[in-house]
Design a protein that fits this description.
Helix content is about 40%, strand content about 15%. The protein is of the alpha+beta class. Strand 3 and strand 4 form a beta hairpin. The radius of gyration is 18 Å and the shape is flat.
Length: about 130
């Protein structure tokens, strides 16, 4: 396989999404995996740092709706909900939100399984060790 250039990497469309039927809402929604920047912002929104920079507490308020607000998009891949509309989304059926949340987590590489896969502990074949120093 050839080595990629910076231009090839930035030009690649590596978005992942899934269209999910939501009979409770009468249709289908598109769940888009978060970009690296959006994923980092989502994770940072869950942590409250203390004065010395250490984690003071984890803020799980509206965590499901926060992730979905960033992940639910239309056919044009534009977000359906803004950050200011998280509370509105959070009022919907919890079971439906959880089902969509699990899809968004998987597509965005969030959660224990994603961490295990990233660490190479999921049982998948690992690549050969690097020979660089």
């Amino acid at each position: 396989m050839a080595f990629l250039t910076k231009d090839q990497i930035t030009a690649a469309d590596d978005r992942t999404w899934e269209d999910v039927d939501v009979p409770e809402w009468g249709g289908t929604v598109r769940v888009l995996g978060l970009s690296g920047t959006d994923r980092d912002a989502h994770e940072a929104s869950m942590v409250q740092l203390g004065p010395n920079g250490s984690v003071q507490r984890i803020n799980l308020a509206d965590s499901t709706a926060k992730l979905l607000a960033k992940s639910l998009v239309g056919e044009d891949f534009e977000r359906l909900f803004t950050d200011k509309e998280v509370k509105d989304l959070g009022t919907k059926n919890g079971a439906v939100l959880h089902r969509l949340y699990e899809v968004a987590r998987r597509l965005s590489g969030l959660g224990k399984k994603a961490v295990e896969e990233a660490a190479g502990n999921s049982g998948r074949a690992r690549s050969a060790p690097s020979t660089s120093a």
